[in-house]
TrEMBL record:
<keyword id="KW-0675">Receptor</keyword>
<keyword id="KW-0732">Signal</keyword>
<dbReference type="InterPro" id="IPR005064">
    <property type="entry name" value="BUG"/>
</dbReference>
<dbReference type="InterPro" id="IPR042100">
    <property type="entry name" value="Bug_dom1"/>
</dbReference>
<feature type="signal peptide">
    <location>
        <begin position="1"/>
        <end position="23"/>
    </location>
</feature>
<protein>
    <submittedName>
        <fullName>Extra-cytoplasmic solute receptor</fullName>
    </submittedName>
</protein>
<dbReference type="Pfam" id="PF03401">
    <property type="entry name" value="TctC"/>
</dbReference>
<comment type="similarity">
    <text>Belongs to the UPF0065 (bug) family.</text>
</comment>
Amino acid sequence: MVMAIRKTLPMILMACMTLGAHAAELPTTLIVGFQAGGGLDSVARALANELNKTGKHKIVVENKPGASGMMAIDAVRNASRNSALLVIMPGGSITMTPHTNKHFQYNPKKDLVPVARLATYTLGVAVSPDVNAATLAQFLKLADNSRKLAAYGTAGIGLSPHFVGETIAKQSRVNLVHVPYKGAGPAINDALGKQIPAVISTVPSLLPMVRDGRLKLLATTGTHRDKHAPGVPTLKELGYPGWQLKSGLVFLLQLLCLPMQLKSGTPPLTTRSIQSHCTIPLPYKVFCRHPCLPATSGIWCCTITQCGVKPYQTLATHFQTERIPIKP
């Protein structure tokens, strides 16, 4: 993921400079839909630091956590027309949220203009060192015997980490308890502070704590083991089908970032200029056909239904999910 960011940074720099020409009085704001400390926030701040080194443009990172990224989308949609705003979003906020949020209020085809794909990454299941488990099977056995050890935290309802947990619960027949946060950072912090026994997040966000022994990584998603954690088995290896990369269904496993997305009010000329300078451009026509759109994300509707998760009611602060009891 870091290499992808480095390759893309110079081109995004040119994009932001072009955007700045239309808003010379204002800094360009990168809006992140999750709290500071998580993977997306780290990407945003690394990007902003590199762009600010030029001294020719000011890039500001602003966190708008809540509703699995929807608060960030609302901030962009409701901004004034002369605002220089870009939003960094995980693909799951577009793929899954339409099926989990009854108040899904935006249309990706109309409200967002895609610019580039910045990175992809796998997910990992990690537990606190105090949890007496060296494997996923051992953790699930403990969780099955103790409600206190059955909780796992994620960045929020309706994103890939949530459904990794729900799929593991369903297929193992262990009633795990989902604890949603407003970002990966708070979830990881609570796992480090032993407030929750387990956390599911991106592998890059977990690795620093895994390497210094503060968390234990039990499994990852992917067709192959993560090159940064070759000793950790994949869910596929452990007998959990569905969470591996499939042609045309990249969102099923890897959380594909569609990070730099412009408000549709941005002048078309500026948008085309930004896209032309990106190393991994995402043309509008390709975006409209992409499986991240609600109209073509039926696979997630099926997965969500099978996991027994019903759409939650409110957008910003009240997180609530209902589970259908798993039949033996």
